[in-house]
Amino acid sequence: QDYTWEDHGYSLINRLYPDVGQLLDEKFQVVYSLTYNSLAMHRGVDTPVLRRAIWNYVHCVFGIRYDDYDYGEVNQLLERSLKVYIKTVACYPEKTTKQIYTQFWRHVKHSEKVHINLLLLEARMQAALLYALRAVTSY
């Protein structure tokens, strides 16, 4: 059974804490939609597919999968070093090192790497909220 933020989490958290759902949703949307329309040396790049791949990979790491998403995109867009970095930061933040940070996507700017960090941390927060809210619903 699917339990998504849009369909279930948002409405439940708004019932428990009025207006908090809206604030969290805005926070998720702001981070998800951030873009310079560039990637490394390329300008005029729209990156929603990449941002969605990162978000869904983080959810996948935590056991959340969506039937309507083609996870082949994750393997096409996220190289192994980026996947290692994402999994380390999301699951074992205390093991994150400068070496892991510098090994993925060496050609991108640090500001782009910061955006990747923001994406994965917000996706992680949303995954944790989904598990907690589903537990509340079950209880």
Automatic annotation (TrEMBL):
GO terms for cellular component: nucleus. Pfam families: PA26. InterPro entries: Sestrin. One of its GO terms (biological process) is regulation of response to reactive oxygen species. GO terms for molecular function: L-leucine binding; oxidoreductase activity, acting on peroxide as acceptor. This is SESN2 protein. It comes from Regulus satrapa (Golden-crowned kinglet).
